[in-house]
Amino acid sequence: MNNRFARALTAGVLATGLLIGVAQAQELQPIDRIAAVVDEDVILKTELDRAVANILGQYAGRSEQLPPRDVLERQVLERLILLKLQVAQAQGTGVRVTDQEIEQAIAGIAQSNRLSVDQLRQQLARDGSSYADFRNSIRDELLVQRLRQRFAQTRVSVSDAEIDAALAAQANTGTQYHLAHILIALPEGATAEQIATAQKKVDGVKALIDKGEMDFNAAAVRYSDSPNALEGGDLGWRSVDEIPAAFADMMKAMKAGQVTAPLRGPSGFQLLKLVEVRDASQSGPQMVTQYHARHILVRVNDQTTEAQAKAKAETLRARIAGGAKFEDVVKESSEDLGTQSKGGDLGWFMRDEFGPEFGGAVAALADNEVSQPIHTTAGYHVVQRLGTRESDVSNQSKRAQVQETIGRRKLEEEWNRFLREKRSEAYVDFRMGKGSEGNQPGTETTLPTKGG
């Protein structure tokens, strides 16, 4: 039995069991229809309705920019399918999120909206949303974030040679480009007929934009197959090293507001719009204060409580105040194995490099002064500040920024490829709407015409 058939059989049995259970309970509660079966999970109609309502709320007063209801539901359903696949992948590879982390995230959301958690609960209730559903959505978001972080650590690397090449390319320009795109997707191994249909569709979309019958953002919302379609295809600001070379040369020759001719890429046909251009170059030195310090660390763990760790750190500080050599106490008692053999030396660092609590305490010391125990997530530190200096970190900062942007571009490319693979391998059975006839991603083939 091949894997695809096995998944289909399992999902079919699961869905059948759920339907039987619903039928047996129909006298007790309304039937919650299944919108789609995704491998061994399901997306319920209520989930889809909530997600669609959220989009409608975001576009309040601009509903004319949204596609017809059935197309919008299909776009949102595809998002939910990808979310289910990512959550399943995260859970299947050992990614976990604790209840405490979920509560902390919710508290952060409430605080950013100037609400208490109780007020947030009340707001959700007024909006007709369940707190349990909201909490589950936060859990899923955290799982996907962790999965993406793990993916970046194992699949993405940036070499010094790549950084050097990008810096050389930027030597005479600090230009950044604000881009948006429309994607007309093609499946892996697309047939000549599928390619021709997609070509015809992208040509039709381009014609609508060129004639002024629809602006780019509205066309992206209505016709793009990209995950960011409902954001108008916005790709944000990109520097030259964040844009594929073939596109970067094209952007340099374009003016703000212009749209490219259809471009064929690995995922289908694209239209790219240059929204804005800006000069983000940084001139002159970037002077910062750096600190030189050494430390002793007492960790908090299963064997050592917070109180015990703090008490031990206070004892070690008292020994130093009584005349013991700092480096001797480090070798005897510090639990930071990375600096223990160097007498606890941390080298030169910027204030918040080891966290705001640590940096703030070091900044408040005089040279050669030894701190009281400093509490951080690592445990309790006793720190001696050895000196300060003003340093130009412009080159260091530029290299770090370039490394980040190249890494972000690579991650985006690899992650999107990974999602396409997961989607193509998944068993998806649509139970409602236009998609119910197949198990592959919907590709709306109706050509755009005036008036949509």
Automatic annotation (TrEMBL):
PpiC domain span: 174-276, 288-387
Q: What class of enzyme is it?
A: isomerase
Q: Does the keyword Nucleus apply?
A: no
Q: Which UniProt keywords apply?
A: Chaperone, Isomerase, Periplasm, Repeat, Rotamase, Signal
* Catalysed conversion reaction: [protein]-peptidylproline (omega=180) = [protein]-peptidylproline (omega=0)
Assigned GO CC terms? outer membrane-bounded periplasmic space
Q: Which segments carry the region annotation Disordered?
A: 430-452
E.C. no:
5.2.1.8
Database matches in PROSITE patterns: PPIC_PPIASE_2 (PS50198)
The record's annotation in Pfam families points to: Rotamase, SurA_N
**GO BP term (any one):** Gram-negative-bacterium-type cell outer membrane assembly
Summarizing the function annotation, the protein's role is: Chaperone involved in the correct folding and assembly of outer membrane proteins. Recognizes specific patterns of aromatic residues and the orientation of their side chains, which are found more frequently in integral outer membrane proteins. May act in both early periplasmic and late outer membrane-associated steps of protein maturation.
Please identify the protein, giving its name as recorded. Chaperone SurA
Organism of origin: Lysobacter enzymogenes
